[in-house]
Amino acid sequence: MIYVYTNGGGMGVLASDALERLGIELEDTPEDMKEKLKKVLPYFASLKNPIDTTANATEDQYVEGLRILIEDNRTEAILAILLPQLPHYTEKIVDKIKEVCKKNIFITFVIYGGFYADKIRKELEGFFPVFESPEEAAKALKFYLSKIKG
Per the confidence metrics, is the pTM higher than 0.90? Predict the structure, then answer.
């Protein structure tokens, strides 16, 4: 499974569209995953794929949802979009993301916003491919998939 995971619905749609243009179709989130995500994300989150935690999700909710996706054996790759907004997100999100992203799956991030987002982006760049647009991240994901699938 390839997931688009976002806290900003519009960016998730842009990422999904970019992947589709590159020939990557997103499957719907399996029901058992939806049940797990329902337990940690806001009740109004969209659990289809793309998964939209919404801007009201806290950083702990965002990271916990990401962890659920990462730990599932069906997950091949995640295009994660983070629009860090105060007060829901702090600089601690960098360490929290690094902590849950230890499994060997491809994760690319789109981090968009002003000065605060730039700071988080710079801290994550040493660990993950980080882009400013969903289209760039989609191309990186396509490249990765072409290499592992031959």
Answer: yes
